Amino acid sequence: SSSSSTSSSGSSKGESEEYEKELCKEKEAGEWFRLVAGEGDSCRDVIQCTSSGLQAIRCPAGLAFDIEKQTCDWKDQVKNCAKKTKEKKVKPLLYTDEPLCSDGQLACGDGVCMERTLFCNGEKDCADGSDETYCDINHDPNRAPPCDKSVCVLPDCFCSEDGTSIPGDLPSSQVPQMITITFDDAINNNNIELYTEIFNGKRKNPNGCQIKATYFLSHKYTNYSAVQEMHRRGHEIASHSITHNADENFWSNATVDDWAKEMAGMRIIVEKFANISDNSVVGLRAPYLRVGGNNQFVMMEEQAFLYDSTITASLTNPPLWPYTMYFRMPHRCHGNLQNCPTRSHAVWEMVMNELDRREDPTIEEDLPGCAMVDSCNNILTGDQFYNFLNYNFDRHYQQNRAPLGLYFHAAWLKNNPEFLEAFLYWIDEVIEKYDDAYFVTMTQVIQWMQNPRTKSEVKSFEPWKDKCDVPEGRSCNVGNPNSCSLTSKELQGETIRLHTCMRCPNNYPWLNDPTGDGFF
């Protein structure tokens, strides 16, 4: 964008300096604001105060300036053209020379004292709202403390200063290299064949057991008899919400109750219609990888979820091991507008390490990494994908052997046969070449971290022997799955098929009626 400085001739210099002083009085350093509010071109123009005078910029054509985000964005995304300045957030008076309040209390921006616990709890308690303005991981007065290894001990707690330490302090050469393949969204006829081709029963880990994956399942269009079969074969089923609500901000700001309805509700649906009764649905991933802040993690504690796998860590060497949320996250909250938890929570975080997508990492300058494989949009051929897999495997294997996460949406492999071919070739090669690489589920990673075993001991590690070698079978023990044609009061005008080995419910299960019984 173009920029220019405004200055004027001598006679009116005094006036313009006064005017400038007035304009800049209340502005923060580097803050952009509008001189004229309104739609059209005036929504493209902003200025900021600098030490050498006012500086102006204009957003390129087709864009407008979002005053809250402080950046140019697509015109139809910007909703604040009528506002000249971004909302002034009053800061609480947390750090004062003389304490303003008694113990256990903190001062609002207006000097009124409030209980410390009310700060950053998601509700404005101060008259000026200042108890909720300063709430990131560095300023929440009730934030989780930094990692303390004397308190945080396995099996229930694991943390390290920078997140790269190996559990049990094993030397890296003794650690089995775990690989977690995950797929997000519905399981149905669009992808069942793909999953059967990858997990064909012939691909086995060094302990003789079939390789396993984790499926983060969203509800709509899911075929639950197929889910039942996946579970029978020893794959892990986890929750990815009922609605997969397309408004990304919904997830950032959802209440504890919203999160419970979406995620615990999904677990109710899965357990009932895929006939899963072993309490194995213990993990979740938020749609669009939108972390839900403390609300999401409070819900997970209340609803007894074991782990989340939504938080992304930017590309680092060595990569991070999963950690528990009792202590402060060992990396910064990565991603645009993400709302990471700040408090202490009794939940594991299966952190999503970004992958390195550079063609030639030895010479290329830094490219940002990508967390989901299908968002590594510079992978265009099977060969590139194969090299990418090898390079990222080596990056983990030759460093601290943190689990290598390969996170997919099925369509990316299904719609690109040469990616699938390269993927299968790579899996087979890893199985053949390494006697210490294991394709395991998220829960199996946690089971190993809670009880770290060397690569020789792990061959007889019981939790990895579960559903070791499952014979071919059919999705329902008896008869064929029911194909139920259903409606829901919550989905006006839609009729959706639900495939299940269980009895057909009265209604299509949804947020307020996850069992489909019709009792809201």
UniProtKB/TrEMBL annotation:
Residues 1-13 have a biased composition (Low complexity). One of its GO terms (molecular function) is hydrolase activity, acting on carbon-nitrogen (but not peptide) bonds. It comes from the Eukaryota. It holds the Pfam family CBM_14. The keyword Disulfide bond applies. The keyword Ligase does not apply. Residues 1-22 are annotated as: Disordered. GO terms for biological process: carbohydrate metabolic process. Disulfide bonds join 101-113, 108-126, 120-135. InterPro entries: CE4, Chitin-bd_dom, Chitin-bd_dom_sf, Glyco_hydro/deAcase_b/a-brl, LDL_receptor-like_sf, LDLR_class-A_CS, LDrepeatLR_classA_rpt, NODB_dom. Residues 21-83 form the Chitin-binding type-2 domain. GO terms for cellular component: extracellular region. Keywords: Disulfide bond, Receptor. Transmembrane segments: none annotated. This is Sortilin-related receptor. The lineage of its organism: Eukaryota, Metazoa, Ecdysozoa, Arthropoda, Hexapoda.
